[in-house]
Design brief:
Blueprint (H helix, E strand, L loop, with lengths): L1 E5 L3 E6 L2 E6 L3 H16 L6 E9 L4 H16 L3 E7 L1 H9 L10 E2 L5
Parallel strand pairs: 3-4, 4-5, 5-6
Antiparallel strand pairs: 1-2, 2-3
Helix pairs in contact: 1-2
Pfam families: STAS_2
Protein name: Phospholipid transport system transporter-binding protein
Organism: Halomonas caseinilytica
């Protein structure tokens, strides 16, 4: 596992095919988080399969959802297949209320994870 970004409130890690976000993502750190994830996605090969794990985001955060949607857009542009998105319970609730859950591949709250 390698740490791609750590700014006190947020930590972005990459391990194999998964980007993992931990912390309290806010709009102050969202741009740096999105950029670090973009660089990681650029290193993936055409058709490679990846996952995004946001189970460590500890509160409802529209900034975290914005970062996730940006990564999904970038992955699509790079022809990288996102096969799983794992969300914390607060983020899963937010995506459901905002009716964004249908945009996420295999979106699953932390409580449903095994």
């Amino acid at each position: 596992m390698s740490v791609l970004l750590e700014d006190g409130a947020n930590r972005l890690e990459a391990a194999d095919d998964t980007l993992t976000v931990v912390g309290s993502v806010d709009f102050e750190g969202a741009a740096a988080l999105a950029e670090a994830g973009r660089h990681w996605l650029e290193g993936r090969g055409h058709g490679e399969r990846v996952a995004f794990d946001l189970q460590g985001v500890d509160r409802v955060s529209s900034a975290a959802i914005s970062v996730l949607l940006e990564w999904l857009r970038q992955a699509r542009q790079a022809s990288v297949e996102v096969v799983d998105v794992r969300l914390s319970a607060p983020l899963a609730s937010l995506t459901e209320v905002a009716e964004l859950d249908s945009l996420l591949p295999a979106a699953s709250p932390a409580a449903a994870s095994v």
